[in-house]
């Protein structure tokens, strides 16, 4: 069956020394790396926004340096998820969105909120956080890391609000939920053998290609390879795209 949804496959971030002279040709200027990646993949996940608020000029620059049909998903600021642990974050969320995220316009993909491994299930706190998130056209994703979050009540809360539960693979370190809770699926592949580092085998890529095809029968799918540490991510992304053609 042909898929109904749009499939996009990319990487988590694009500035990595390990990629230079490997995925990126030797001598390619750093400011040209995003453009080089965007000629080969159709999406990327902005990770720097997790570590510090960016400026509107950054987002405008990324918009201008990528093709018209390119999509940039954005990782939410750690002040919200890790410092404040989702509590009383109204002003922090406003600052994050005001930092330029919406400058991406039609190229803005889902916004990812990755929770810290040390935060146990807090339904009241989560509900208050979800109620603060801007509505459409912005899409949101929650990535859980504490085992107590892997529960039916979470699935119900996210489904009610159309927020995606991230389908993460983390070499068994964190929960790896597969429930679909929104009109799109968002998968982060951190490595199936070694977190952030191991390359995906042909068999593993075949397995993911099958999953993605199944999801795409009814909804859009975003897949990001976060096994960036030894440079496997862009090569794995291209190999998955090849399988999905």
TrEMBL record:
User: Which InterPro entries does this entry report, sorted A to Z?
Assistant: DUF72, UPF0759_sf
- Signal peptide (from-to): none
Q: Name one Pfam family in it.
A: DUF72
Question: What name does the UniProt record give this protein?
Answer: DUF72 domain-containing protein
> Lineage from the top down?
Bacteria, Bacillati, Actinomycetota, Actinomycetes, Pseudonocardiales
């Amino acid at each position: 069956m042909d898929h109904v949804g749009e499939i996009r496959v990319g990487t988590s971030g694009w500035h990595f020394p390990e990629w230079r002279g490997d995925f990126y040709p030797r001598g390619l200027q750093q400011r040209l790396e995003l453009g080089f990646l965007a000629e080969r993949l159709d999406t990327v996940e902005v990770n720097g926004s997790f570590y510090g608020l960016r400026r509107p000029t950054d987002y405008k620059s990324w918009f201008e340096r990528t093709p018209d049909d390119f999509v940039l998903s954005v990782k939410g600021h750690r002040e919200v998820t890790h410092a404040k642990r989702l509590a009383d974050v109204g002003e922090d969320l406003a600052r994050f969105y005001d930092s330029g995220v919406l400058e991406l316009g039609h190229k803005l993909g889902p916004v990812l909120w990755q929770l810290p491994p040390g935060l146990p299930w807090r339904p009241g706190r989560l509900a208050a956080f979800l109620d603060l998130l801007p509505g459409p056209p912005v899409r949101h994703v929650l990535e859980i890391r504490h085992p107590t979050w892997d529960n039916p009540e979470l699935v119900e809360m996210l489904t009610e609000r159309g927020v995606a539960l991230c389908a993460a693979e983390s070499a068994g370190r964190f929960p790896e939920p597969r429930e679909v809770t929104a009109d799109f699926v968002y998968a982060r592949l951190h490595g199936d053998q070694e977190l952030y580092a191991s390359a995906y085998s042909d068999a593993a890529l075949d397995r993911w290609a099958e999953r993605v095809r199944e999801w795409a029968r009814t909804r859009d799918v975003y897949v990001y390879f976060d096994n960036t540490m030894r440079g496997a991510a862009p090569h794995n992304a291209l190999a998955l795209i090849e399988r999905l053609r």
